[in-house]
Amino acid sequence: MNERKVALITGSSRGIGKATALRLAQEGYDIVLNYARSRSQAEEVAAEIESLGRKVLTIKANVGDNEKIKSMFAQIDETFGRLDVFISNAASGVQRPIMELEESHWNWTMNINSKALLFCAKEAAKLMDKNGGGKIVSISSLGSIRYLENYTVVGVSKAAVEALTRYLAVELAPKNICVNAVSGGAVDTEALKHFPNREELLADASEKTPAGRMVSIDDMVNSVMFLVSDDASMIRGQTIIVDGGISLLV
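The chain above was modelled as a monomer; its predicted structure follows.
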């Protein structure tokens, strides 16, 4: 069995997931990288992690598919025999006005963004239980509690993530597993490139944020790292909003 702590970060070939994986590696964790499409990007991240002297297991899996989830966790168990941290970061979604949404858009978005957290957390809890507990952090966004244009299905899926975070926190507490979420304001990641109104969003966020600047990927990672630390062990089922104060404005 691996004696070093192990962290799984879904959707970790880029953006917040990649930055979190690298930070956890720097903190001494062996890493499970998960990606859905970009093998070359995932391999680049894996090489960076290995250069830090950490072990890496890279797994291609669409976390919207429960069979793929089970297969991924079987590989983690076989390779490391443990899991200490699970960051539910993988996200996708169709961004359209309500009247243009179809059932397939709903199913795709809810499966990857919401269902994945539930079924990954179940598998993660089994592995964490072997070593006396662990930490689960999911990534959400302000669209879960506020209206954002073209964001209906994604916003609803993130609201489900935050509700699931509360339920998981209570039911997994007897296993000494802490479950929380980090919700970001507008963060300029690759995902934002898919927004039709990206430039407008960024300018608006920079101008209106009380903190005087946009949220950076590092701001998000700093909060994730706090929640996986022992210092946060009495924070359970909470969604920490990292938005420079913009959600406080009417």
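The two ends are 52 Å apart (CA to CA).
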